[in-house]
Amino acid sequence: MHKQTAYGTTLLAVIAFAAGAAMAQDETAALDSQYTDADGDLVADAPTDPSLLKDPDTLVFAYTPVEDPAIYEDIWNPFIEHLEEVTGKDVQFFAVQSNSAEVEAMRSGRLHIAGFSTGPTPFAVNLAGAVPFAIMGGDDGQFGYKLQIYTQADSDIKEVPDMAGKRIAHTSPTSNSGNLAPRALFPDLGVVPDQDYEVSYSGSHDQSMLGVVAGDYDAAPVASEVVDRMAERGLYDPADVRIVWESDPFPTTSYAYAHDLTPELKEKIEEAFFTFEFAGTALGDEFTGVSKFIPITYKDQWKVIRQIQKANGVEYTPEGLAAE
């Protein structure tokens, strides 16, 4: 089962770090040249030409490629059936193998609705015209996950500075909790990635965690939501590892639709998300602590993520995405 943590109203460590490089109050969009943002909400506007709006007979839906996508096709089936009922459309689950492939699929028009993980969400917004509108949460409206540093239970790494000179796994360059947040936060905690330790990219959170368990890495920063899910599936024994440090919560996967769908279809998609009941479904069993989808905006809920990425010099370009 999947555990979600509460979303903190502030991320004190991040704000303290970002104070010297805070974004201007009037933040402007970083959209690809094919998109516009006339209303200043930082996401792509719908086409003004009605002939460019899309109303496909079959909607294609993808979930972020955190673990084996085949498992999630079955888990998402109750929601897909609900989405079909509300929209009156056939819905196809698209198993993506990487964040880059998922963004490219929406950019090319082959993907209509998707769950994008935290770090790649700004790439999806700026390169693919994705419009985030929902996130999983609890009845109290809270949502989020934590960045955690794991090491072996018997490791001599007791505090963050102890990682100096060790074998540390990050996930991929564009991952928020797996790379960008550590690079932004760790210097204030006593280590500078690529300076105090050499970064090894594992490719994913689960590979980082399994590498720690196997002793391939001395420690790794990972997303709490992924390692919780792995533990409950029996992929590793929690007794074999130990948490060195954890952050305040970050937003989780964003759920977005393509900017160029018809307004009526977007409304139906939102209706399907916000009326879906998790209880008693495979999705509800998988994502424990979650009871519904909660409305969000990219401009508000992803501001701290944009701050972290700005601090890391991230640019929302095809080249930046390819670096993943």
TrEMBL record:
<feature type="signal peptide">
    <location>
        <begin position="1"/>
        <end position="24"/>
    </location>
</feature>
<keyword id="KW-0732">Signal</keyword>
<dbReference type="InterPro" id="IPR001638">
    <property type="entry name" value="Solute-binding_3/MltF_N"/>
</dbReference>
<dbReference type="Pfam" id="PF12974">
    <property type="entry name" value="Phosphonate-bd"/>
</dbReference>
<dbReference type="InterPro" id="IPR005770">
    <property type="entry name" value="PhnD"/>
</dbReference>
<protein>
    <submittedName>
        <fullName>Phosphonate ABC transporter substrate-binding protein</fullName>
    </submittedName>
</protein>
<comment type="similarity">
    <text>Belongs to the phosphate/phosphite/phosphonate binding protein family.</text>
</comment>
<feature type="domain" description="Solute-binding protein family 3/N-terminal">
    <location>
        <begin position="58"/>
        <end position="290"/>
    </location>
</feature>
